[in-house]
Task: structure prediction
Amino acid sequence: MLILEAENLKKNYNQKDNTNKTSALNGINLRIKKGEFVGIMGPSGSGKTTLLNILSGVDKATSGKIEILGKNINKMSKNKMTLFRRNHLGFVFQDFNLLDSLTLKENIMLPLSLECKEPEEMDKKINDIMTMFEIMKVKDKYPYSVSGGEQQRTAISRAIINNPDIIFADEPTGNLDSKASRAVMKYFEKLNVSEKNTILVVTHDPFTASYCNRIIFIKDGLVNMEIIKKEETRKSFFDRILESLAIIGGEEDEF
Result:
């Protein structure tokens, strides 16, 4: 089942003097099926985050079409898009985006509260998710008093609490050390394999990308190449990612 389709996506930004335009995307085509775990990679300035923002409805494309679950999100009003994102999409960000005034449990509860769910239903779902992500012991703590890894696991829990059809993650391990990054990506892998969640992640990190099943490389606002993990180890997939990054170019410190 096709869950997301993008056709000929273009994004231009006007410069301050309004005389010139900068092209961020130059005609991206993309298809994602239900249950896929897809990574988007490319050099700095290649359009990775711009693409994610447009696919998720956070930003608008200059031209092109995006369909999620068969619905053209470009034609939705702002209010309809807000409801659509709340009901069908989940978001995980590099800087966690948790509310410091709420406990971890209250942060996860927020999407359910907006949907006016029954307290008993909320408690069960929250307890199940916090148990799965091993953060029950810190459920009553505030974001600033727990580790980065625990904050990101909380953010992922909040993203999936409403059973979204697709999860968008923008550099989800960008602010984590290697141990926390490994733990977070193992949880993403579990969501994909065990729970059949569809995940689209933007990352510059080959280690993070190696948990995906398909990698799309973009450069200069266009799809440059694609590699798919078939029957191989994550180590060999990681090596192929490194080789592909070397082929598309870019400074070493960008990756």
